[in-house]
Structure formats: C-alpha cells, structure tokens
Specification:
Blueprint lengths: L6 H6 L1 H12 L11 H6 L6 H13 L6 H8 L6 H5 L6 H15 L4 H13 L3 H14 L3 H4 L6 H9 L14 E3 L7 E5 L4 H5 L2 H12 L2 E5 L8 H4 L4 H22 L3 E4 L2 H7 L2 H4 L7 H10 E3 H5 L13 E4 L3 H6 L5 H8 L3 E3 L14 H4 L1 H16 L5 E4 L2 H7 L7 E3 H8 L22
Parallel strand pairs: 2-3, 2-4, 4-5, 6-7, 6-8, 8-9
Antiparallel strand pairs: 1-3
Helix pairs in contact: 2-7, 4-7, 5-7, 13-25
The chain binds iron/sulfur cluster (2 copies).
Length: 445
C-alpha cells in the first residue's frame, strides 16, 4: 500500500514510523476479510481488517483526530488477530490497531456513558481486590438482570451481570509470593503469572498448574510485585496505564531472574501471554526497559508450551472425547496450534476441534461487555459448533473464553491445566463433577 506520511513526522515519531511500515506491507488483497468475525457477521467492508486498515491509514497519515466513524469500526474489532493468521503479506495488524486505539483514546471524546463504563472497567478489572468486591456486588444485582435487560440503554450493564459468576470463589491458599518446590529432581524453575481477573474468577486454574508442573519436576514461583499484564487497558487504548503495568512486571521478573534465575515465565491465560510476549515491542523505545522487557518476552511461555516439554502420561483411565477450543490469543496471537492438542492426546484423550475454529467466541477482554450484541452472536455460533463435536467436555486455555462460553451449551468447560492435572493424579475439577469423570479418591480403584 502506498503511503504519504510527512517524512519529518516519521523522523520524530517511532510509533508512527512503525505503523507506516505495517501499512506498506498491506497489498489490499482482501484475503483477511473472509476470516474476520466482524466482517463475517456484519458484511461491512469497514468492519473488515482491510477496511479498518484504510480508516487507520487515513487517520494517522493526515494526523487527524479520530472520528465517531473510525472509533465505531475500530471498537468493533475484537483484536482476535485472525487476520494476521490469514494475511499472506505478514501485515502486523496487532501493532497497527494498538496504535489506532491509543490515538482514538487521545483524540476522540466518547459519549459520557461510554467514557464512564471504560473508566470503571479500567479501574476495577486489573485490581483483584476491587474486582472481587465488584463481583460480589454484581451477585447481589443479578436478580434484577431480567428487568435491566428490558432497558436498551443498560444492555452493557446487563452483559456485565450475565458474565459475573453466581458465587465468587474463595481466595486460593497458594495466593501470594512464594515458591512451590519440584517433586523429585528439579528440571526447571519457572515464574507463574498470578495476574488479576483469573485469580479472582477461577483460582483453581493456577492451583492445578502448580500441582501439574511440580509433579513433573518444575519448581514454580509466585514472584513478588507482579500483577495485571496490562492487556485489559491496552485494548482500550489506555497506553500509559498498560505500559506502567508492563514496567512493573518487567521489574518484578527481572529481580527474580537476576536473584535466582528463571527458565520461563509461564502464563495460563493466553490473552495475557500475547501481551507479555509483546512487552519487548511495547517498551522498545524506553532505554531503561527495552533490554529487560525483551528478555521477559523471550522467557514468556503459554503453559501448553511448557507441557510440550514434559513426559506427560495419564495416571488414571482417560479416553474421554474432549473438544479443544483454541482461544484467538493462543492460535492467532501466539501462533500456538498443536501443543494443547498434543498434551491432551498424550494424556489419552480423544480430541475434537469444532468447525470454524478460527472464529472468535466474542470474549476478547472487555469486548463482551462493550460490544454485547456482536459478542453474543459469536458466542452462540461458537457454542453451537462446539456442541456438534459430540464431546464430553470442552478445554480452553483462556479464562475469558471460559467465562464467555460457560452456560451457552450443556457441556462442562474447563482449563487445559485442570484436565491435565486430573489426568495425572490431581483432584476432579469442579466443572467435571457429575459428568462421568472419576474423583481423585476413586483413582486407585
Ligand atoms: S490479507 Fe493482509 S495484505 Fe491482504 S488486505 Fe488483508 S491485511 Fe492487507
Ligand atoms: S483482529 Fe479480528 S475482528 Fe479485528 S480486523 Fe482482525 S480478524 Fe477482524
């Protein structure tokens, strides 16, 4: 694609220069449109990757403030990155749309309700204690959800209530900075991201990861000082807040790397993993952080990548049929395709993949709150495709997808680490109770 950015602007603005290079790689072939969930649903070129690229080019090239039209179409983008998997020219849409979202945030004044909701999400979701309190409040408000749903202006509030669990789980006994020694000879030492929303919504995921990894000789550390990876605010264009989160985590992990050494930084929420693997790019212009951030990104691993290095074998009778739902952040964001399925197969499960596996389930961070109509259509489409697999349970590697899809069909949804932990001797995950999987106590029978 030809561009005509003023050279003097490119010379002083590295972010603009990077976006210009991305724009130049697009040959407007349109292959990406066919695999873009919003184009598939809405059929509008401006809701396709190519259409958004044109809108972003026009805005950045002309150094224009974002218009309501640009904000609408970029807001509808899920950042699912399916377009990056499809694109034959290697267009780095993620960095381009991240830049566009930050530009929109700086130059466009959203309607009051939109601003207020975004500010609320940014001030609550990344902070576990605030989020826990908010979920308890949402639990009290749930009985009113039916009434609220009748008021179109409150549809996003209704969407939030629908996503809140009926009961907020107790804090994990493993919470907080500490080390979990490897069983037997230690083969690796890793940090496990505790993060923010997942540890409140489903602490069982990381509890299972700790049992699983230590069982296979991996020492696991909860590093002091780490927290939200920054992706929730990053996808809302709140650049400074996301960079502050990135710097805090880089500092925390760097202290641990330098004091005791780390073989990997393991992430059980693939949306966070995609962002942590991008810290090196996000902080490339910060002389104090660029090298440390690049080192952290190079050490970041989705838990399925670590499982691929372990001699997994079932410790109980398995053989059940499991549908594998590939989160966008894992299959498109991190280009991890085979490792989760290979882990399931090594553990004796039959693996089914739903049709249209490349399409997003509609979760996408805060998307299911901010764009509830599109998110619900995508959820229902995904849930129907998963149900058609005939599986007994569904595994995913991202808390957002699990929260989005649970209840959308009759199947139990759980994280890969929970099922792998059970298969190798751990307790029965709560999601599988009553679905024909034996409890830990039955394992020896
Ligand atoms: S597939 Fe790639 S090169 Fe083709 S229009 Fe889409 S982004 Fe541009
Ligand atoms: S990130 Fe997803 S929703 Fe956004 S343009 Fe690409 S394919 Fe479409």
């Amino acid at each position: 694609m030809q561009t005509s950015f003023a050279p003097e602007r490119l010379a002083v603005d590295p972010q603009l220069a990077a976006s210009e290079q991305i724009l130049r790689t697009c040959v407007h072939c349109g292959f990406c449109t066919a695999t873009c969930p919003t184009y598939v649903l809405l059929g509008d070129e401006l809701d396709s990757p190519r259409g958004r690229i044109y809108l972003i080019k026009d805005m950045l090239e002309g150094d224009k403030p974002a218009t309501a039209e640009v904000a609408r179409h970029v807001d509808r983008c899920l950042s699912c990155l399916s377009c990056m998997t499809t694109c034959p020219s290697g267009v780095h849409y993620m960095h381009l749309v991240d830049h566009a979202r930050a530009h929109i945030e700086k130059t466009y004044r959203r309607p009051f309700a939109d601003r207020a909701l975004r500010a609320l999400l940014a001030r609550v979701l990344p902070y576990p204690e605030r989020f826990r309190l908010a979920l308890k409040g949402a639990g009290l408000a749930r009985p009113a959800a039916g009434l609220l749903a009748k008021v179109p202006a409150l549809k996003r509030i209704t969407a939030m209530l629908a996503l809140a669990p009926a009961r907020v789980p107790a804090r994990s006994a493993q919470d907080g900075p500490r080390a979990f020694p490897a069983q037997g000879a230690r083969i690796a030492r890793v940090a496990l991201l505790q993060g923010c929303a997942q540890k409140v919504l489903e602490p069982a995921i990381n509890d299972a990861a700790i049992r699983l990894l230590t069982r296979f000789g991996v020492e696991v550390v909860h590093v002091a000082g780490e927290g939200c990876c920054g992706s929730l605010v990053h996808h809302m264009g709140r650049e400074e807040e996301s960079l502050a989160s990135a710097r805090r985590n880089v500092d925390a992990w760097t202290r641990e790397i330098e004091a005791n050494g780390l073989d990997a930084i393991v992430v059980t929420t693939s949306g966070c993993g995609t962002t942590i693997k991008d810290y090196g790019f996000m902080l490339r212009g910060d002389a104090a952080y660029a090298a440390k951030a690049a080192r952290v990104s190079a050490l970041a691993r989705d838990v399925s990548e670590v499982l691929a290095t372990l001699p997994l074998a079932p410790a109980r009778r398995t053989g059940q049929t499991i549908a594998y739902h590939a989160a966008c952040s894992i299959q498109h964001g991190q280009q991890i395709k085979d490792e989760p399925k290979a882990a399931l197969k090594a553990l004796g499960f039959r693996v089914k993949e739903p049709a249209e596996g490349h399409l997003c389930c509609g979760s996408a961070g805060t998307y299911n709150i901010l764009q509830p109509e599109i998110a619900t259509r995508l959820r229902d489409r995904k849930a129907a495709n998963i149900a058609r697999t005939g599986a007994q349970a569904v595994v995913a590697g991202n808390i957002g997808c699990l929260t989005q899809l649970r209840g959308a069909n009759d199947l139990p949804f759980l994280h890969l680490t929970e099922l792998a932990d059970w298969a190798t001797g751990g307790p029965l995950p709560a999601a599988l109770d009553g679905h024909g999987f034996v409890r830990a106590a039955d394992a020896a029978e």
